[in-house]
């Protein structure tokens, strides 16, 4: 069984940093196998950013291989709503998204000093 994790733009870009494979491995050690899900507006946002930032281009290449969930909401709201629908974690570096997740009782994953923090 896989644990769904809905990733946002900030987390995907962060995963382009050196050592990010270790972050995913550590998360899987703690939570079990993960199924990364990307809402379609997050892909759209990465496409726009990829025109200017190489990290976003790399993140887009990686995200395109993950499970994509169609949504007509804005990127941030889509991450929250998809996480609710699939009963999964949110993975984000965005304080605004994490605050909403905390208020709405959605478990989340973020990184602090390059180490994964799991809440919920």
Description:
The chain has one domain (3-119): 3-Layer(aba) Sandwich (Rossmann fold), CATH 3.40.50. It is globular. Strands 3-2-1-4-5-6 form a six-stranded mixed β-sheet, sandwiched between helices. Helix 3 runs antiparallel to helix 4 (54-63). The protein contains six helices and six strands, in the order E-H-H-E-H-H-E-H-E-H-E-E. The protein has helices spanning 9-14, 20-31, 40-50, 54-63, 75-86, 95-104; strands at 3-7, 34-39, 67-69, 89-91, 108-112, 115-119. By secondary structure, it is α/β, with parallel strands linked by helices. Helix 6 links the parallel strand 4 and strand 5 (108-112).
Topology summary:
Blueprint: E1 3-7, H1 9-14, H2 20-31, E2 34-39, H3 40-50, H4 54-63, E3 67-69, H5 75-86, E4 89-91, H6 95-104, E5 108-112, E6 115-119
Helix pairs in contact: 3-4, 3-5
Q: Strand fraction band? A: 15-25%
Shape: globular
**Class by alpha and beta content:** alpha/beta
What is the name of the CATH class?
A: Alpha Beta
Based on the structure given, which CATH architecture is correct?
3-Layer(aba) Sandwich
Give a brief rundown of this model.
Helices cover 51% and strands 22% of the residues. With 120 residues, it is an alpha/beta fold.
Which terms summarize this structure?
single chain, 120 residues, alpha/beta, Rossmann fold, six-stranded mixed β-sheet, 6 helices, 22% strand
């Amino acid at each position: 069984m896989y644990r769904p994790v809905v990733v946002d733009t900030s987390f995907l870009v962060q995963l382009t940093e050196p050592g990010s494979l270790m972050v995913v491995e550590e998360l899987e050690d703690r939570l079990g196998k993960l199924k990364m899900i990307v809402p379609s507006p997050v892909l759209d946002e990465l496409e726009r950013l990829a025109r200017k930032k190489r990290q976003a281009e790399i993140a887009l290449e990686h995200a395109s291989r993950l499970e994509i969930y169609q949504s007509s909401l804005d990127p941030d709201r889509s991450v929250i709503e998809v996480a609710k629908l699939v009963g999964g974690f949110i993975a984000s570096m965005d304080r605004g998204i994490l605050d909403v997740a905390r208020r709405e009782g959605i478990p989340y994953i973020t990184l602090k000093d390059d180490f994964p923090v799991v809440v919920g």
